[in-house]
Amino acid sequence: MKGCIDSMPGNQEIMPNSLPFNTTIITSLFTPLSSEQEPKSDVPGFWTILQGASLVVAVDSSEQVLLVGDLPASLEPETEPLMIGLWQGKPLRCARIALDAALPEGYETLPFQGPDMRLDNTLATIAGRAAQIMHWERRSRHCSHCGSMMSRIPASWGKHCQSCGDDHFPHIHPCIIVLVRRGEDMLLIRNAAWNPGRFSLVAGFVDFGESLEECVQREVREEAGIEVTNIRYVASQCWPFPSQVMIGFLADYAGGEVTPDGVEVVEAHWFHEGVLPLSPGGKRSIARWILDTFGKNQATST
Ligand SMILES: [Zn+2]
After folding, report:
1. What ranges make up the beta strands (E) of 3-45?
2. Of the candidates 45, 27, 41, which has an alpha carbon nearest to the alpha carbon of residue 82?
3. Residue 99 maps to which CATH number?
4. Of 94, 125, 92, 110, nearest to 24 (Cα)?
5. Could you please report the per-residue DSSP string of 194-261?
6. What's the confidence (pLDDT) of residue 299?
7. pTM score, two decimals?
């Protein structure tokens, strides 16, 4: 029966752990290290150079690869290069260049966020990881308790405050995302920030005191005005924009009339599984994966 976790199709091109931005997709290439473990060699290594939500790549390369070796002067990072691990056995450092920095001839940027799918999923995944780590580094310079400068806890991304003694660890925010089904119909919503005609799944941040299932029930109730039952987990995905983990569920309709909240959600409708509308987030998102896996593969995205 379509729509049950027990009947997940066996021929999916993307299995949950190998969704873009999850570690599995780069396991054969990347070994994570903290910056405390900077190799002492002179090996120049690879670069993940980000400009906004795009990765800098060489135009004339026959395949998409990370930059390696000395950077051209005009790609001078605006942030201190940060060692994040080994890429194909060589040091991998990441840094950002200014949003308005002009790229030298022979280089271009390819987005790792959004519907543009030109960047290889492997490189999108390491770019997302670098973005998430640099976001934490920017947000963890000072102690959120006393305001003093913090130092790194060895062999981790955690920080220690020398002044008040607090330890701080990376902030990764859990969000649920859920496909609600009523027979062959699926509930999709349009966020106020999305263009007309674009719909996706109900999603939201976990609140104080909530289990994941309770969060699913509340978000569906708040965004669409209905009740759900038979909530079951299907997959999760790192979503480094800037630092979420998306936890995917299926749920069945249990009662109520679909009514958008009119603020965060401006439209909410039942769609037949054969006529799904455009969905935001592109093919890299768990929303798309859930729709493709449990929505008869009829969703279109750009
Ligand atoms: Zn402190």
Report:
1. 30-32
2. 45
3. 3.90.79
4. 125
5. SPTTB-B-EEEEPPTT--HHHHHHHHHHHHH--EEEEEEEEEEEEETTTTEEEEEEEEEEEE------
6. 47
7. 0.89
Statement to judge: residues 180 and 255 lie in one domain: yes
CA 270 – ligand 1 centroid, Å: 50
CA of 79 to the centre of ligand 1 (A): 24
176 and 286 belong to one structural domain: yes
| Per-residue tokens: 182 | 């009523």
In angstroms, what is the span from residue 134 Cα to ligand 1's centroid? 21
| pLDDT score for 297 | 44
Give the pair of three-digit tokens for residue 149. 């400068």
Q: How many domains does the chain have?
A: 3
How far is ligand 1, taken at its centre, from the CA of residue 35, in Å? 22
- List beta partners, residue 189: 200, 268
Instruction: Report residue 40 as tokens.
Output: 């002492």
Ligand 1 center from residue 93 Cα (angstroms): 28
| H helical segments located in the chain | 121-139, 212-224, 286-294
How much distance in Å is there from the Cα of 167 to the middle of ligand 1?
A: 8
Ranges of residues in the chain whose predicted pLDDT is under 70: 1-14, 34-42, 278-281, 296-302
Burial zone of 275 (CB within 10 Å; 0-12 exposed, 13-18 middle, 19+ buried)? exposed
Residue 103 per-residue DSSP state: P
The dihedral over CA atoms of 147, 174, 56, 139, expressed in degrees to the nearest 10, equals 0
Chain segment 7-18, per-residue pLDDT in tens: 344 444 567 888
Which amino acid makes up residue 76? E
The answer to the question of residue 301 being in a domain is no
Q: Which residue range is the domain that position 223 belongs to?
A: 172-294
* pLDDT per residue as tens digits for the range 168-216: 999 999 999 999 999 989 999 999 998 888 899 999 999 999 999 999 9
C-alpha 142 – ligand 1 centre gap (Å): 8
Specify whether 206 is located in the same domain as 275.
yes
Q: Answer yes or no: do 133 and 110 share one domain.
A: yes
